[in-house]
Amino acid sequence: MNEFVGTQMRGWDAATFRTASGDPTMRSTVVALTVLESAPDWHRLRTRLERLTLFVPALRMRPLFGAIGMSAPRLAVDPNFDLDVHVRRYRLPSDAGWGGVLDDARRMSLTDFDRDRPLWEAALIEGLPDGQAAFLLKLHHSIADGQATVMMGLNLFEFGPEADPNEAPPPPVPEAEDVGVRDVTYANLADTLRRGTDLAVSTVRGVLDLAKGTVTETQATWEQAWNTLTSIGRMAAVPDGPMSPVMIGRGTTYRFAAFELPFAGVRGAAKAHDLNVNDAFMAAIALGMDAYHRRHGVVVEELRVNVPISLRGDAGDRSGRASNAVSIARFPMPVAGLTAVELMGISHDLVAQWKREPALRLADPLAEVSWLVPVPMLAQAAQASDVTTSNVPGPPMPMYLAGARMLAAYPLVATIGAAVNITMVTYDGGAFIGLSADDRAISDLVNLVEDIRGGFAAVTGAPVGPADRYAQAGDDTRLADEGAPVD
Q1: Angle in degrees, 0-180, between the axes of helices 263-271 and 445-460, rounded to the nearest 10
Q2: Within this chain, do residues 161 and 269 fall inside the same structural domain, yes or no?
């Protein structure tokens, strides 16, 4: 087999790529927005990015497609890789401010990737207030989940303003050659045959284990089998539609908002009740969502929430060979008329219950099966979710990019079918919240952000940073756009 055909996307990665390609409402991008104290040295930044692509091979790999459209793409080193195609820098107009940064991040996120090149791009934005700059890194979700993005950042950023002379040298530039459709098709067929053989062997082994267990431990064996089957049913169930009577529309565009607060407040609220940070994070979102629906004259008892659960470090962890190591828990979460403490406890119990689901660690096999399901059906299932939440731990100490100190790190993730996506990244004592809202689902983004900020204030018992990073003192309620158009 031609060694330059690379490896085929598998499981969750392949399913993410397929659905994002097949339905524009499922566009799957991650934009990491970092605010820098000053403009970094451009030539040093280019060198850091070149180095990053050598440590993270996926950043030099392009998708390859065979003649048979049902196969997942392969990722192979691009023989025409050119860093300058992926990286650019520019200045914003003097009056653009924070709204201008988010608008550019939105345009970047909503622009499709060039499928003939590696699935990422970056931009340095200069000319921000107080001499600050912003760095945007856009990745396709099929090559990176939230934690993988943070891990990339640790290879890109440095621990001080000066270059570390003892930093490990990067690997050599990988070899690459042009590959024809025929070679890719043959490689796909070989992989399909190999997977079919492995599946047959696994099926036979499973049947034999079931037969053996039936003889030696009948009740325990069949209870385990039944629990796994019912768990798969719960995980694969397709809801009728969103539970919110307000956030019902779904379209192909979304808008971003962002704010921050001290991480100590979130952590302290959870620790005070012997719970974890994610419990406090989800309680804040639930309180905000309850307030937002009441603002619209509706009391909604539950909302359907997606929660990515990391499998890194798990027995089934495949993060050493793939870019996503997550599974998705999806469940109705109570939101109406509950205190922050009650919501933290409910969140803790719901996530813990899903972590015990046997099917949770079958995410990749189930994703493989999804190739038999039409993309519109997968999109319909995704659009039945009201909110996607995710929190990702980042570095607890200051980091620098080509000599410039990073002040903030905001995660801006596509909605991927849900009405709203809210992600938190922690960094250097701060909790940075990125929010994306479907334009058809949310017609008043300013109000939604105000209510979510209120939810965090209620959980932490302290003020939350402004929605406009460069707002004047006391003016913390305005966004660049007073809302989003409704089609």
Answers
A1: 50
A2: no
Q: Which two tokens stand for residue 349?
A: 């119990």
- Cα(86)–Cα(137) distance, rounded to whole angstroms? 10
Q: Which domain holds residue 140?
A: 3-181
Q: Residue 34: exposed, middle, or buried by beta-carbon count in 10 A (0-12, 13-18, 19+)?
A: buried
To the nearest 10°, report the CA torsion of 284, 288, 291, 297: -140
pLDDT tens digit at each of 487 positions of the chain: 577 888 888 877 888 888 888 888 888 899 999 999 999 999 999 999 999 999 999 999 999 988 876 678 889 999 999 999 999 999 999 889 999 999 999 999 999 899 899 999 999 999 999 999 999 999 998 887 666 777 788 889 999 999 888 888 999 999 988 988 888 888 888 887 887 787 677 777 777 776 777 778 787 777 777 777 777 666 666 677 899 999 999 999 999 999 999 999 999 999 999 999 999 999 999 999 999 999 999 999 999 999 988 665 544 444 443 355 567 888 999 999 999 999 999 999 999 888 877 766 666 666 666 666 778 877 888 889 999 999 999 999 999 999 999 999 999 999 999 999 999 999 999 999 999 999 999 999 999 999 999 999 999 999 999 999 998 544 554 444 444 443 3
Please state the pTM of the whole predicted model: 0.88
> Last residue of some domain: 143, 159, 181?
181
Q: Which tokens go with 361?
A: 């660690």
The tally of domains found in the chain comes to: 2
Q: What's the one-letter identity of residue 287?
A: L
The identity of residue 349, as a single letter, is D
Three-class DSSP category at 410 = strand
Q: What's the first-to-final CA gap in the chain, in angstroms?
A: 50
Residue 367: alpha-carbon gap to chain centroid: 17
Specify whether 270 is located in the same domain as 159.
no
Our measurement of the distance from residue 45's CA atom to the centroid of its chain's CA atoms, rounded to an integer in Å, reads 25
In a domain, residue 242? The reply is no
Bridge pairing between strands 302-310 and 387-393? parallel
CB proximity list for 391: less than 8 A, separation 6 or greater? 277, 278, 281, 423, 424, 425, 426
CATH number of the domain at 365, please.
3.30.559.30
Judge contact between 117 and 78, C-beta under 8 A: yes
Alpha-carbon distance 339 to 39, whole Å? 44
Among candidate residues 181, 198, 214, the one where a domain is terminated: 181
CB within 8 Å of 92: residues ≥ 6 apart: 100, 101, 104, 125, 126, 127, 128
Looking at the chain, the number of H-run helices and the number of E-run strands are: 13, 15
